[in-house]
From TrEMBL:
Serine aminopeptidase S33 domain ranges (all copies): 113-245
Domain of life: Bacteria
Protein name per UniProt: Serine aminopeptidase S33 domain-containing protein
InterPro entries (alphabetical): AB_hydrolase_fold, AB_hydrolase_sf, Hydrolase_4
GO cellular component assignments: membrane
KW Membrane (keyword) present: yes
Organism, as annotated: Micromonospora acroterricola
Annotated keywords: Membrane, Transmembrane, Transmembrane helix
Length: 358
């Protein structure tokens, strides 16, 4: 509404009446200006941004479907049948690369020891060819299953992995391995190590030994600072942002699925029947957070009253994230593989009690 006021010279002075709720003094004690409007908008935008950041930090990442559940045990014949069915399906699937199919190394009967080998993100069962032979030659039955969307002719298929599919795959694989031997353990590398730790906690009724190679519980701080990990996990793990692919060929939407599983590990760690736990890492690894790589399994070991075995590879070997890529090392590579098996088999000394430590 506009009112007309005549000044002392008789000229008409037309002024805009203030809108309801706004006094003539404006927002800051003066007339409302363009600067005031911009400041108000900026303040509102900042408030929304802060609220969004807070919401990302408070967004729950714990998911019911990742908690796991005991499975019906299989005898040797049934476990072998499941493995052979999986391998037969992959053999006739034109989308699965022949060299990337699941592998079963069996002595033909249930053995005293069986081991499950879980390969890393972007890799396939052939990543374990040499280490699997080391275990087999020591009398183990060995099961190396192919992870969902991995080892296919579509080299970008692994971008589509989901946390729930990965844990379901790991749980099924453990059920097969449990039918192959009396004592069962799990070895995992990188993302596969996250799944191995998850199995050791949610299927503690089965897993007795645990070896983690370059475990990816958190990214190297040089790749993503600690404060950014959870927001990135929410935004990319929930696929709220369009996917991005790093220079290493890693899909952020896929990588954060493993981080989500890591976030769903029991806190505090559970006491289970674990007999040994170990980790192998390289100081040249630029992918994983070294503190988390040792700290997370260290907590699991302490909860089970055992001491974590730690193998830090010499820098002189030049091995980086993939601590199974040892072909170029010759004798040193063979020695490292034997060291990994020894770490897996070793019965660590009992962890010191609080009183003893003091």
């Amino acid at each position: 509404m506009t009112g007309a006021v005549r000044g002392s010279d008789g000229a008409e002075d037309r002024r805009q009446c203030p809108p309801p709720g706004l006094t003539p003094m404006g927002l800051l004690g003066g007339q409302l200006t363009v600067v005031d409007c911009c400041l108000a908008l900026a303040t509102g935008a900042l408030t929304l941004l802060v609220s969004a950041v807070v919401a990302l930090y408070l967004w729950p990442l714990r998911r019911r479907e990742l908690r796991g559940a005991p499975a019906h045990p299989l005898d040797f014949a049934a476990a072998t049948g499941v493995a052979e069915t999986i391998m037969a399906a992959e053999a006739v699937d034109p989308l699965v690369r022949p060299e990337s199919r699941s592998r079963l190394l069996s002595h033909g009967s249930r053995t005293g020891r069986a081991v499950l080998l879980l390969h890393g993100y972007t890799h396939a069962p052939d990543q374990y060819d040499e280490l699997a032979k080391e275990f087999f030659d020591r009398g183990y039955n060995v099961w190396i299953p192919r992870a969902p969307h991995h080892g296919t002719v579509d080299r970008r298929a692994h971008h589509r992995v989901e946390a729930g599919d990965l844990t379901a795959y790991a749980a099924e694989a453990l059920t097969v391995a449990a039918g192959l031997g009396e004592e069962v353990g799990v070895v995992g590398i990188s993302g596969g190590a996250v799944l191995a730790a998850w199995l050791a906690q949610v299927r503690g009724d089965v897993v007795r030994r645990l070896l983690l190679l370059s475990p990816f519980f958190r990214p190297d701080p040089r790749q993503a600072p600690a404060f950014a990990v959870k927001p990135l996990t929410v935004l990319y793990g929930r696929r709220l942002l369009p996917d991005r692919v790093t220079s290493r060929g890693y899909s952020l939407s896929a990588v954060t699925q493993y981080l989500m599983i890591a976030r769903n590990l029991p806190v505090p760690p559970r006491r289970t029947g674990l007999l040994s736990a170990a980790v192998a890492i390289s100081p040249l690894d630029g992918v994983v957070d070294p503190a988390a790589a040792v700290g997370v399994p260290g907590g699991i070991a302490r909860a089970n009253g055992i001491t974590l075995g730690v193998c830090t590879l010499p820098e002189s070997l030049g091995v980086r994230h993939d601590v199974l890529a040892l072909a170029a090392l010759g004798v040193d590579g063979s020695e490292l593989r034997r060291r990994y098996v020894a770490l897996y088999e070793e019965e660590p000394a009992p962890a010191p009690t609080t009183a003893a430590a003091g």
